[in-house]
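User: Sequence for Hsp20 family protein below. Tokens please.
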Amino acid sequence: MRTYDFTPLWRSTIGFDRFFDLVDAAQHAGSDDNYPPCNVERLGEDRYQISLALAGFAPDEITVTAEQNVLTVEGRKAEKTQREFLYQGISSRPFKRQFNLADYVQVRGATFDNGLLQIELTREIPEAMKPRRIAINGSPASGLREIETKVA
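Assistant: Structure tokens for Hsp20 family protein:
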């Protein structure tokens, strides 16, 4: 896989820092561990849900943090006793998953049921940013004047 150096672009652009950070993060996303498995789905025009499969974890062992356009889900298994496994197929290793959120996407809540963590997200665009219809003032005939022409 190729890597790109964005340093020349950082020197000649202003205000695109977040964009280049996202491109850089997407470039390294393929090499990261994809544990725990997750789904990201659209529930409506402005509603989303992230579901993470966290078998073996309890709700008090999971932390969900939203800070500036980044959603972080961390989990650390609290082992109370040593157990002897003949085969361990359910992973209980610590993890940290981060999701970059678009502007105006807010975390509405999280639920944990049957080993599945579901995080509800909504996009709320401020009224000032939404398109609005502009009224056109004046009557249609007031701006027209009839031009007299002389017959030759």
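Strands lie at 38-42, 47-53, 62-67, 70-75, 95-100, 105-113, 116-123.
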